[in-house]
Design brief:
- Helix content is 37%, strand content 16%.
- By secondary structure, it is α/β, with parallel strands linked by helices.
- The protein has 19 helices and 18 strands.
- The chain starts with a strand and ends in a 5-residue tail after the last helix.
- Bound molecules: adenosine-5'-triphosphate and magnesium ion.
- Adenosine-5'-triphosphate binds next to α7.
Length: 494
């Protein structure tokens, strides 16, 4: 029997060998499995009996090969049970496909996490058929294999022996284009924050909104979803694989069609944000892979939790180290964060006086450490929109802005084709030199900014990357003075 092990997104085929020999009745599972595999013994034993089979009253040895391989607990039970039935002559045919599933004590077959990466791996190794629980059948079918879904061990055996054949599951349809709850047209005014959103969506730049309560920061951030480009096939599979490991796949539409938009609450723990546990599960940063991570009220997050974002922001991946070995999950996302300028929220507000002490303000803003802030290219003030203008419609609909975003992405794709980068936010310093040259007058504007606003070397390159995206959105080959001016404007410090 063939199963598939999973650790993080790392997969390996596992051969389940079963030997039934004379001796005292026992079920021994070898192959260095983790504690959960040992638990599986009891479930397999009960499931076999409760499905109307006999559990051999002899010494049953199960070997999960290769033995040195790390193995996550669930998913092997179906293969083990079928192996025992085959070895004891209760199953009279060979099983050639991949078997994935957990068994309940009553013999029901339960879905497992990580079906998609496992089935894709097996398919790439030439296994054309998989036997899984009903809830996993669509996910497996989406990987391009012949997928059979079952409710119980009994059903699997009846199918294999031809008593009650089950039809292969058809590939589930792609979900319809998502409906976004916030459209830019719903937001009155706020032209500058909207420009920032457009630049973030096009160039993959991280973005921070700062402003008093109720000025629409949350609403603006949520609108990002509506202007991001669609997922391409490779991204859809990569993002879906992470969701599969997290057990968050919708069985009716297993392959994601919309970019993930994850908005963890500020009470989120380190574990839920970056992942962890044993076996290691992906966190919000990885569920946001290929999409956006929204941290609303970012200053309310614990500082230590925010500091853990540095690794994914720099490496576009997180490595979770555990006793069983390290697991790496991808984590390439656009960060969009929102906060008030001070604890009371009214610092710099035209209408209300701020009641915070200077040191309170300092401490509050200090929550976003320098290194984190350094990775946020766009920092934008969101002012209050006059009450009488709140009912106005925005100038543009998200669909129109999205068209510009797509066109800008296409320009980036062509320009960056040989670099391995996809968006301007990823440009290295050398690439900034190459792709973001400006004329002498603009260079002087930058030099002034460096002097007056103490723009760091890093800040200098970030401004140029943002300016490059602004130029791409305008359809300009060169980075113009106005692009740099806009980039400087969208980088006011909170
Ligand atoms: N520019 C705007 N156009 C239309 N409605 C707006 C605008 N700004 C705010 N609103 C209205 O005010 C509500 C509050 O906005 P939102 O929650 O986004 O503010 P916020 O800046 O996130 O506030 P807080 O700092 O309290 O989190 C929105 O649900 C919306 O109804
Ligand atoms: Mg808010």
């Amino acid at each position: 029997m063939t199963a598939c092990a999973l650790w993080g997104l790392e997969t390996a085929l596992v051969t389940v060998e079963v030997d039934v020999a004379n001796g005292l009745p026992a079920l021994v599972v070898v192959g260095l499995p983790d504690a959960a595999v040992q638990e599986a013994r009891e479930r397999v034993r009960a499931a076999v009996r409760n499905s109307g089979f006999e559990f051999p009253l002899r010494r049953v040895t199960v070997n999960l090969a290769p033995a040195e391989r790390r193995k996550e607990g669930t998913g092997f039970e179906l293969a083990i049970a079928l192996g025992i039935l085959r070895a004891s002559g209760q199953l009279r045919v060979d099983v050639t496909g991949l078997c994935l599933g957990e068994l309940a004590l009553d013999g029901a077959l339960r879905p497992v996490r990580g079906t998609m990466p496992r089935v894709r791996f097996a398919a790439a190794r030439g296994l054309g058929q998989v036997l899984v629980a009903n809830a996993n059948a669509g996910e497996a079918a989406a990987c391009g294999v012949e997928s059979f879904g079952f409710a119980s061990l009994r059903e699997v055996v009846d199918h294999l022996e031809g008593r009650a054949r089950v039809a292969p599951t058809s590939v589930p349809p792609r979900a319809a284009a998502p409906h976004h709850s916030v459209d830019l047209a719903h937001i009155a005014g706020q032209e500058t924050p909207k420009r920032a959103l457009e630049i973030a969506a096009a160039g993959g730049h991280n973005l921070l909104f700062v402003g008093p309560p109720g000025t629409g920061k949350t609403m603006l951030a949520r609108a990002l979803e509506s202007i991001l480009p669609p997922l391409d096939d490779a991204e859809a599979l990569a993002a879906s694989a992470v969701h599969s490991v997290a057990g968050l796949i919708d069985p009716r539409h297993p392959v994601l069609t919309a970019r993930p938009f994850r908005a963890p609450h500020h009470t989120a723990s380190h574990l839920s944000l970056v992942g962890g546990g044993s076996p290691p599960r992906p966190g919000e940063v990885s569920l946001a892979h290929c999409g956006a991570l929204f941290l609303d009220e970012v200053a309310e997050f614990s500082r230590s939790v925010l500091d853990t974002l540095r690794e994914p922001l720099e490496q576009h991946a997180v490595t979770i180290s555990r006793a069983g070995g390290a697991a790496t999950y991808p984590a390439r996302f656009v960060l969009v964060a929102a906060m008030n300028p001070c604890p009371c929220g009214f610092w710099g507000d035209a209408e209300r006086e701020c009641t915070c002490l200077p040191e309170q303000i300092e401490r509050y803003r200090g929550k976003l450490s320098g290194p984190l802030l350094d990775r946020i290219d766009l920092r934008v003030h969101v002012p209050r929109v006059p009450f009488e203008r709140l009912r106005d419609d925005g100038r543009e609909r998200s669909a129109d802005v999205r068209e510009r975003v797509l066109a800008a992405r296409e320009r980036m794709r062509v320009r960056l084709a040989t670099t391995g980068r996809r968006v301007n936010a990823e440009l290295t310093v050398i690439e900034v030199k190459r792709f973001c040259s400006v004329d002498a007058a603009t260079e002087r504007l930058l030099a002034e900014a460096v002097g007056a606003r103490r723009l760091s070397a890093r800040g200098y390159h970030r401004v140029l990357r943002v300016a490059r995206t602004a130029a791409d959105l305008a359809g300009s080959d060169g980075v113009r003075g106005e692009d740099v001016a806009l980039a400087l404007l969208l980088r006011s410090d909170p």
